[in-house]
Amino acid sequence: TGHVVQQEGEFRTFLATGKNLNRFSTEDEEEGELAVTHYRVVKNFPRTVQCPAVTHVAVRLETGRRNQIRVHFAEAGHTVLGDSRYRAHLWKEIPWPHKRLALHASTLAFVHPVSYEMLRFTSPLPSEFTHFVRYIQQTQSQNVDNDVVVSPFAQVRNPIQARSASEWADTEWPTRWRFELVVGHANTRSSVTSDFESSFQEE
User: Fold this and answer.
1) C-alpha count within 13 angstroms, C-beta hemisphere, residue 183
2) pTM of the full predicted structure?
3) If we measure between CA atoms, which residue out of 121, 20, 119, 14 comes closest to residue 63?
4) CA-based max dimension of the chain
5) What pLDDT is recorded for position 75?
6) Could you tell me which of 181, 167, 148, 170 has the C-alpha nearest to residue 37?
7) Which of 28, 116, 118, 202 is the most buried (most CB within 10 A)?
């Protein structure tokens, strides 16, 4: 939800778990687990009369913590659409009618443990995503508020670079994830550091 200002960057925090099982960032390194999320803005969708601003974002995981993407974006003021757990109030004015998160794992790649062959699996965006984007584009063509510019999905940069199977085999954590998500309205703007060339690792 909302306008993700910085076009690419990184969230790096320590995630802890509360008594209600919700995750949150903490400064206590002993209490939390290191969580690193890289992102890139794919497209900003301005606010219209029919819909607040949203952002299409591409996300790469360097670590694989529970609820990592959801917590990082929610704490930055950009809750994933459909998320009822983390700062759900930020997207309630956005017409997302589906009973699911606007978060999609579009690519998974890893090295086969025996053959060392690079395996890569992709999944197209679900119809809920494509229909929502089409709706947003239609509302923008009708009435756009140019004072606010924002975007809604997160499509991860392709994490599978031109590397040989032997190079991937030498990687300690070869699993690679690619996600598509949509984040909505926010009263705050994220402050992150740019480090988009880092490798993805699932821990």
Assistant:
1) 36
2) 0.69
3) 14
4) 56
5) 96
6) 181
7) 118
Given a contact cutoff of 8 angstroms between Cβ atoms, the answer to whether 118 and 111 are in contact is yes
Read off the pLDDT of residues 63-96 as tens digits, 9 standing for 90 and up. Answer: 999 999 999 999 999 999 999 999 999 998 898 9
Q: How many CA atoms lie within 13 A of 114 on its CB side?
A: 0
| 3-state per-residue secondary structure call for the chain | CCCCCCCEEEEEEEEEECCCCCEEEECCCCCCEEEEEEEEEEEEECCECCCCCEEEEEEEECCCCCCHHHHHHHHCCCCECCCCCCCHHHHCCCCCCCCCCCEEEEEEEEECCCCCCEEEEECCCCHHHHHHHHHHHHHHHHCECCCCCCCCEECCCCCCCCCCHHHHHCCCCCCEEEEEEEECCCCCCCCCECCCCCCCCCC
Cα–Cα distance measured from residue 127 to residue 124, given in angstroms and rounded to the nearest whole number = 9
pLDDT tens for each residue of 129-152: 999 988 888 887 765 444 333 333
Instruction: At 78, list the tokens.
Output: 């950009």
- Residue 34 forms beta bridges with which residues? 14
**Spatial CA neighbour of 195 closest among 10, 55, 3:** 10
Tell me if 149 sits within 8 A of 44, measured CB to CB.
yes
